[in-house]
Amino acid sequence: MAHLIREQVIRQRLNWFRKAQELGSITDACVFFGISRKTYYKWRTRYVASQGDRLSLADRSRRPHTHPRQVGTRMARRLRRWRRRTGYGPRRLRWHLLRTGLRGAFPFQIAMVQTDNDATFTNWYTGAPKTAPDTAVRLHPFTLACEAAGIRHRTIRPRSPHLNGKVERSHRIDEEEFYRGRRCRSVAELRTRHRRFNQFYNTARPHGGHNGLTPLERLRQYAPYRGLRRLAL
Fold first, then answer.
1. What backbone phi and psi angles, to 5 degrees, belong to 89?
2. CA neighbours within 13 Å on the CB side: how many for 203?
3. In which domain, by residue range, is 87 found?
4. Is residue 143 part of a domain?
5. Which of 3, 71, 77, 218 could form a disulfide with 210 if both were Cys (CB 3.0 to 4.6 A apart)?
6. Which helix H or strand E contains 115, and what residues bound it?
7. DSSP character for 135?
8. Which helix (H) or strand (E) element contains residue 155?
9. Predicted TM-score of the model (pTM)
10. What is the pLDDT along the chain (233 residues), one digit of tens a residue?
């Protein structure tokens, strides 16, 4: 069916050209078929550029080549495997994956992420030559990743570490209570120990900035999270 429709479209546009030649007037041909001169010239130009290839008159797909929310290759394979194994549709498959442990890292939608101006997060101070002030700065991969997830990325003012105080304090705690005096034999061991430390930090360690409450206890003070039992790591 799709092939027949495409063929009809191609023939219709070829008829535009024939009618214009027959009448000796592009304007009259456009009036006859009820199209604009702009539409006529668009397809005529494309037809001539293809050296008379009739397939150039077929409609082209408007589907984007990429999608910011497209899942990765590994995740796509996993979803296809579960789809074949269970026969579930998209909604039921989502429920199943949530039950088996596929969850977001946070129990809420992140609206904005604030960072400093290090090259790890932004190109504003390293992404273009200083001698070319009018050069557009290429967006950093971190910013693009935030946009793809629907998250706003904001940077603090230069030379203003006090505006990033919570992060700076977190780094200090990591250095004093986790890294100092601790040796790991492998990256895997480091990651395991760090997950345990994060669990302790979020659920058991009293926080001076929260009057002795843990981050989890502080979060529970907000109505949407009163029943929250743990923070995903």
1. -80, 180
2. 12
3. 73-102
4. no
5. 218
6. strand 112-115
7. S
8. strand 152-155
9. 0.41
10. 567 778 888 889 999 999 999 999 999 999 998 899 999 999 999 999 998 898 898 887 776 666 666 667 777 887 787 777 667 777 777 776 666 555 555 667 788 988 888 888 887 776 555 445 555 556 788 888 888 778 888 888 887 877 888 788 888 888 888 888 778 899 999 999 999 999 888 888 888 888 888 888 998 998 888 888 777 66
Q: Is 229 helix (H, G, I), strand (E, B) or coil?
A: coil
pLDDT at 2: 66
Same domain, 185 and 213: yes
- Give yes or no: residues 169 and 218 share one domain: yes
State the sign of the Cα–Cα–Cα–Cα dihedral 159, 160, 164, 169. positive
CA distance 103 to 109: 12
Tell whether 214 is covered by a domain: yes
Considering its fold, how many domains does the chain have in total? 3
Domain identity same for 46 and 15:
yes
The CB density around residue 67, as the number of other CB atoms within 10 Å, is 9
Whether 220 and 169 map to the same domain: the answer is: yes
Q: How far is residue 230's CA from residue 214's CA, in Å, rounded to a whole number?
A: 11
Q: Please check whether residue 9 is in contact with residue 57, taking contact to mean a CB–CB distance below 8 angstroms.
A: yes
> Tokens in use for 129?
């030559």
Q: Does residue 200 belong to any structural domain of this protein? A: yes
| 39 and 79 part of one domain | no
Q: What share of the chain is helix, strand, coil (3-state, %, to 5)?
A: 55, 5, 40
What DSSP string runs through 52-115? S-GGGGSPPP---S--TTPPPHHHHHHHHHHHHHH---HHHHHHHHHHTT---SSSS---EEEE
Residues 217, 168 share a domain: yes
